[in-house]
Amino acid sequence: MLNDKPTIGLIHNYDLIDEFLESMNLTFPDYCNNFTGSFMFGYIKALQSAGVRPILFCITAQVTQPTRFEHLPTGAMICALPYPKIYKGYLAIKNTSLKAYGAETGQAFKDVADSNQVRRLSLTAVKNVIKSGGTYLATPLNLLAKELQRENCQALLCQEYEYARFDTCVAMGKRINLPVYACFQGLDHTQSLVESAVRRWSLENCAGLIIASGREIKRVRQQYNFPPEKIHQIFNPLDLIAGDYPSGTLCDRNTKIITRQDLGISPTAKVVVWHGRVEIVQKGLDILALAWQEICQTRPTEDLCLLIIGTGSDTPRWQRQIDDLNLSGVVWLKEFISDRHLLCRYLSAADLYTLPSRKEGFPLAPIEAMACGLPVVLADAAGVRDILPREKDDGGIIVPRENPTALATAIGYLLDSAELRNKLGQKAKARAENNFSLKGIGLQMRKALSIKH
């Protein structure tokens, strides 16, 4: 029986989804059965609420032929595709030659005089070609095209346009006459030589871009002379309907105390919370560590707690940094919390939320905290001013990036006033509920992607 709903495909940006899952200590079955913590599944829920059938395409080493799975939390289809044979050859090169070239390049920098630019540049170019060439080989384009056509997809939405997979998907789309769109979720704009050569062509030939951050829209228009009519400013959606989020400004006092007991946190402590992927540079966790050290030093008699929820590729490094700084009051749940209700309980056990990131596309984590009635202190990464355009009137404070003292001052300002925290928490909750709901975002996406009935 054919599905009577319009269908679109979505595809992740990682060469293999396994890379992302490994960094989160997750397996592919975990991803299918429990995972909800990404903007991609927010998009899926939003599109479903607007009457669209989304299919998520993943490239993985876990299958040898196209295999369909159900994503249990959303009911959406995940179509897992094997990586091409040629990519297997690339992986062998990457694990051997790239290391060798890296060693040669390092030695070249030591041994070759500054005047000998040719060899230096050629070695760097070889590294770039090996690195980027692999990402261009990672997508099984023929299989992807076949499955998109089999499912009668009206369009394909790529995660990130500053990425090689977007380039290859645009070329595939032109071949099979399928519109290809892309969104932005904060990938570093740094491109290899190979990517830079083709990115402008890809942007000229794509159907359009979905960008949440006003700052990023400005960059794309300036850097690529991208036509404004092909840019759709759409925020990342948050599921506020599932009953996970507390109905009041904060969880009731008894639930809050019980949750703190479960976490080993004093019921009278002033608690600051952060959650997400533990990636030090991008997420600014080194800045948070220095800010927390300053907060504790200026309030030596207060009962303070920094609650960290999450894991990632930099978990060992950041643990060493916490130890080296001898930070006090740190409670760290080193796991990915897939249970949305449990995550909301943990967030609501805090008094305020902070996001010290250097780089973001459009961060969902602070909106989750705002939905729990928490005031927020956010570093001025991309997308943040779109979340809090009126700052305190929308429930939070924005501080400069990479400034531990500014972050510490703003957090301390809120820690010192329960009345102000409650006032901003109410405004934060209203902002989340009124501007980031699934259905509204879903209808905007359906229009942007030109999805027909």
Please state the CA-atom Rg, rounded to the nearest Å: 23 Å
Structural class of the secondary structure composition? Answer: alpha/beta
In the sheet with the most strands, the strands line up as 3-4-2-1-5-6-7-8
Query: How much strand content do the residues show?
Result: 15-25%
Proportion of residues in helical segments:
40-55%
Would you tell me the overall average pLDDT?
88
Distance N terminus to C terminus?
18 Å
Give the overall silhouette. globular
Q: If helices are DSSP runs of H or I spanning 4 or more residues, what is the number of helices?
A: 19
Major sheet: size, sense and barrel closure? 8 strands, mixed
Give the oligomeric state: single chain
Name the poorly predicted regions.
101-115
Question: How many β-strand runs?
Answer: 14
Q: Top keywords for this entry?
A:
453 residues, 6-stranded parallel β-sheet, 49% helix, 8-stranded mixed β-sheet, alpha/beta, single chain, 19 helices
What do you see in this structure?
This protein has 453 residues and is an alpha/beta fold. 49% of the residues lie in helices and 16% in strands. The chain has helices spanning 17-23, 28-33, 39-49, 85-111, 117-137, 141-150, 164-176, 193-205, 214-224, 253-263, 280-283, 285-298, 315-325, 340-348, 365-371, 384-387, 404-415, 418-435, 438-448, and strands spanning 7-11, 53-60, 67-71, 76-82, 153-159, 180-183, 208-211, 231-233, 270-275, 304-309, 330-333, 352-355, 376-379, 396-399. The strands form two sheets. It has an eight-stranded mixed beta sheet with strand order 3-4-2-1-5-6-7-8, with helices on both faces. A six-stranded parallel beta sheet has the order 11-10-9-12-13-14, sandwiched between helices. Helix 13 links the parallel strand 10 (304-309) and strand 11 (330-333). The chain is globular and about 65 Å long.
